[in-house]
Design brief:
With 424 residues, this protein is α/β, with parallel strands linked by helices. Helix content is 38%, strand content 21%. It has two domains: 234 residues, Putative sugar-binding, N-terminal domain (Rossmann fold); 167 residues, Molybdenum Cofactor Biosythetic Enzyme, Chain A (3-Layer(aba) Sandwich), CATH 3.40.980.
Length: 424
């Protein structure tokens, strides 16, 4: 099996998101968490490697360095195309990191053109007139405007990218996309600027994204949300880079105790917490008590020990924007976030090492990264989708642990319940 595609994701849930899309469409996918180690041998009998980074909220220079290092490793493995995956709500600040990372990857791959397409129609993310919408609401008017790390205050992707990238940013409108892949390719090929160009491409449907993928088929670098990747497996089969009738390998989720950890404060995750608590026990994290070292960590662990083996359990830091703001004002944004991440990742480590937990569901990109790092889950084999954009994965190595990493903004209200049912 030849490694064809290398994906670089700017957070861990985003990595499993694009991995699940590619697996659903018939490709074998391995996820590597963190910049790959040149001295380590990875099980590369797959079509795709997804490298999961924490670059979404890193300082710009660190995000660029990690992304370039991941790209360098992927190039050494002989990948034919690179995909820079970021969130479908374009999570970034005016300084980056999407633009600077895109610039650096273009330079590394010696290309002067790429596309930017974060649309994810099945999850309500669409792009029209270069403006990003979330369930029909402009991004800057959606709950993303209050995101604690990357508040989105502009819906126009051309303006957003222009503030971040050294490239010229141009737009392919929806009317052109409706004319199909040849029209898209012709628009791209007609651009003769010596300066690099990033094309923001409108998309309202999955078919729009597939046409975009084919229109940009000759690009060495693609950038966008996970849904942009759904057309790639068919494209690769058309080019005879992969087998026409490849079969997906079976991925079984280990049986055992289940723990749900929610660090995200998004509207979607808060609804999922509420739905879970209607059926199973849970307890909330008090960041102020953690900061004062008032035994909060031990209280949470005692709660897990009390219920483990009897029922699935939820530990959550999800809270309203108003309460989150109060906590951040008292502790500082970075300190508050790190306290919660350290708390939940420590609970995950103890639960899997000592309490028989073999099924972990984690909500929130930063929390997911912290949990995966604490478990030293260097590689994840991608299993079937639970819901669009979120698969079960299995940690590789001596211990097999099923892990579902969910972006804070993703999933139905019953997602946690659906995930646990799908594992058993």
């Amino acid at each position: 099996m030849k490694l064809i595609l290398g994906c670089i994701a700017d957070d861990f849930t985003g990595a499993t998101d694009i991995a699940s899309v590619l697996r659903r469409e018939g490709m074998q996918v391995l996820q590597i968490n963190g910049v790959p180690d040149n001295e380590k041998n990875y099980p590369l009998d797959v079509d795709v490697v997804v490298v999961a980074l924490k670059s979404r909220t890193q300082p710009v220079q660190e995000a660029v360095a990690d992304s370039v290092a991941a790209c360098d490793w992927l190039m050494k493995q002989g990948v034919l195309q690179v995909f820079f995956k970021y969130c479908s709500t374009f999570d970034s600040t005016p300084e980056g990191n999407i633009g600077p990372v895109t610039d650096a990857l273009m330079a590394k791959l010696n290309t002067k053109r790429t596309i930017a397409s974060p649309a994810y129609p099945v999850n309500g993310r669409t792009v029209y007139g270069a403006n990003l919408f979330v369930h029909g609401i402009p991004l800057a008017e959606s709950p993303m405007k209050d995101h604690p790390l990357t508040p989105m205050r502009d819906s126009n992707l051309v303006r957003l990218l222009t503030s971040q990238t050294a490239c010229q940013v141009k737009h392919i409108n929806w009317q052109s996309v409706q004319e199909g892949r040849n029209k898209i390719q012709n628009l791209i090929d007609a651009e003769k600027e010596e300066k690099g160009v990033v094309w923001v491409v409108d998309a309202l449907t999955d078919q729009d994204l597939i046409e975009t993928t084919y229109g940009a088929a000759d690009m060495t670098l693609l950038t966008g949300g996970a849904a942009l990747a759904q057309g790639l497996p068919a494209l690769y089969r058309d080019r005879q880079w992969t087998e026409q009738n490849a079969t997906k390998q079976t991925v079984s989720i280990p049986a055992g105790n289940a723990l749900v950890l929610a660090g995200s404060c998004s509207t979607a995750t808060r609804g999922q917490v509420e739905a879970f608590l209607a059926h199973y026990p849970g307890t909330s994290v008090d960041p102020l008590a953690l900061a004062k070292d008032e035994g909060e960590q031990q209280r949470l662990l005692n709660f897990i020990k009390e219920h483990i083996g009897k029922t699935p359990i939820l530990v959550y830091a999800s809270d309203s924007p108003e309460n989150v703001a109060k906590i951040q004002n008292e502790l500082g944004q970075q300190v508050a976030g790190e306290l919660v991440e350290q708390c939940l990742s420590s609970l995950a480590l103890t639960a899997t090492n000592e309490l028989g937990v073999t099924q972990l569901v984690v909500a929130g990109g930063e929390t997911s990264g912290a949990v995966v790092s604490a478990l030293h889950a260097d590689t994840l084999l991608i299993g079937d989708e639970i819901e669009p954009g979120v698969p079960w994965t299995v940690m590789q190595g001596e211990r097999k642990i099923g892990i579902a990493l969910k972006s804070g903004n993703f999933g139905s209200k019953d997602f946690f319940l659906t995930a646990l049912n799908a594992a058993n």
